[in-house]
Write a structure and sequence with these properties.
Length: 335
């Protein structure tokens, strides 16, 4: 890049930072606390990824995606997953219709997945067959039915939720589907101050009207800026070594990983670290990726892609602690 191109990229980074902060602040008018959750969800949608939220009921997961749909000016739909939900209830089905001449033909009736922001509420309550209806859509942005491929309007974003407390009658998401989520975000319970503010906002005041700050074409333009962020070779190598550090058989894994991990993160994790790191750099007004940018979302990227072995499960080892061990022991420069 010459100096003129670098100056233009830096100007785009400064504009990106202002836009990103404005959107986070606007969503924060409705969602009390949970700054990390807002930041991660907004990062995922701009990166073109999907998010799995895990938290107890009542923490504002539905309100978050509703607020995002208003601020980002995107269409929003919600699917409540239940054991009797069928794939056709999600993607749609072919219906036989007659025309004015009395001739019958099949007509496709789109399901609720044909939207831009989709809330898959309590996704682990549906059967694996129904869960798998989301796989193609999350990865390719398409729906195939009756031999016809339907493309969804971009940007398309899935926010799935699951309750960590009640596991009776649920179907844990398979590793192949978990890997398709850019982030898994643990939603923490609110503090006393935040709980007071929630009650004050929702019960004692009128509803806040949110401004529309972005739209679909603008989000797609932000993705093009994301691809321009400079990634130096040592930083790319660090992201790859960090993913390999979650595999117990590699030379980069620390002692805790070798002892308690059965299988580490997939290559998608390295891609996610770079994508999320690029957005983190732009949100700070920088046009180049740093080592700290790669580390910033490491927990959300790696935790759901790393599986404990029997010993780890028996000793209730936290995968997040093992990810932290990888981050602290892995040197920035390759040996």
């Amino acid at each position: 890049m010459n100096d003129q191109e670098l100056d233009a990229l830096q100007a785009e980074a400064n504009d990106f930072k202002q836009t990103y902060e404005s959107v986070c602040n606007e969503i924060g008018k409705v969602i009390v606390g949970q700054e990390r959750v807002i930041e991660a969800a907004l990062t995922a949608i701009i990166c073109g990824g999907n998010v799995l939220l895990e938290g107890v009921p009542g923490l504002g997961k539905t309100e978050l995606i509703k607020a995002m749909s208003e601020v980002l000016d995107l269409e929003f739909r919600r699917i409540q997953f239940t054991p009797d939900l069928m794939p056709a209830d999600i993607i749609g089905t072919n219906m036989m219709q007659s025309d004015e001449h009395g001739r019958y033909q099949f007509e496709f009736r789109p399901g609720p997945i044909f939207t831009q922001l989709l809330l898959a509420d309590e996704i682990n309550r549906a059967t694996p067959k129904t869960q798998s209806a989301l796989l193609e859509t999350m990865q390719e942005g398409t729906v195939t039915t009756g031999g016809t491929i339907h493309r969804l309007e971009q940007p398309f974003f899935v926010m799935a939720t699951q309750n960590p407390l009640e596991q009776e009658g649920t179907y844990p998401l398979p590793e192949a589907q978990l890997d398709r989520f850019l982030f898994k975000i643990d939603v923490p319970f609110v503090s006393l101050t935040e709980l007071n503010e929630i009650v004050n906002r929702t019960i004692l005041r009128q509803r806040v009207e949110l401004q529309k700050l972005l739209d679909g074409p603008r989000i797609l333009h932000l993705r093009t800026i994301l691809n321009k962020v400079v990634v130096a070779e040592p930083i790319r190598d660090f992201a790859c070594r960090l993913v390999l550090a979650t595999h117990p058989e590699t030379e980069f894994s620390p002692e805790g990983v070798k002892k308690f991990i059965r299988w580490g993160a997939s290559p998608r994790a390295a891609q996610a670290l770079i994508k999320a790191g690029r957005l983190r750099a732009l949100s700070q007004g920088r046009s180049h990726l740093s080592f700290d940018d790669v580390r910033y979302f490491a927990d959300e990227v790696l935790k759901h892609r790393t599986l404990l072995n029997y010993d780890g499960q028996a000793e209730n080892v936290e995968v997040g602690d093992l990810i932290d061990e990888c981050l602290t022991t892995l040197p920035e420069q390759a040996a």
